Amino acid sequence: MPYDLKELAAISGQSGLYRLVRPARHGVLVETLDAKATRSLAPASNKVSLLSEIGIYAQDSDDTLPLTDVFERIYQKYGASLPVSGKSSEAELTGFLAEVMPEYDRQRVYLSDIKKLANWYTIVSQHLPYQPTQAEATPATDEP
To answer: pTM, whole model, 2 decimals?
Structure first.
């Protein structure tokens, strides 16, 4: 898995991404994914969405592509720096996602979703190391 998203979450009503530290009595203790790494309590009333459980809708009505796979595709095409941001134009953002994931469902994936994807990828690529898969890490040899 290129970016380990298991402990990262988005919290409703709060901007940015968070690392889950541990469960608490009235919610979840989280740490901001930035240079300050500020800890706070995400109350149980807020929806906490793990990035590892989020997917992007594909054209097949029952199919979604996990965010980890989308991030892998983005990394393979652009590395750690994106040509777009959450403030880019609608045409630039939809063109970006179409390059990375041509099969995305244009009816169910909204512009706001693409903006979030760009923002989240930027945050994750700045604060988490990219870890190549085993196949990438160990090149194949042509031994008889």
So the answer is: 0.84
Burial of 13 (0-12, 13-18, 19+ CB in 10 A): exposed
Which CATH architecture best describes the domain 8-51?
Roll (2.30)
pLDDT in tens, 114-133: 999 999 999 998 888 777 76
- Alpha-carbon Rg for the chain in angstroms: 17
Question: What does each C-alpha distance from 3 to 46, 62, 142 come to in angstroms?
Answer: 25, 25, 29
Q: What is the pLDDT of residue 133?
A: 63
CATH topology of domain 55-127: Arc Repressor Mutant, subunit A (1.10.10)
Can you give the residue ranges of every domain in the chain? 8-51, 55-127
Q: 61-82: per-residue pLDDT in tens?
A: 788 999 999 999 999 999 888 9
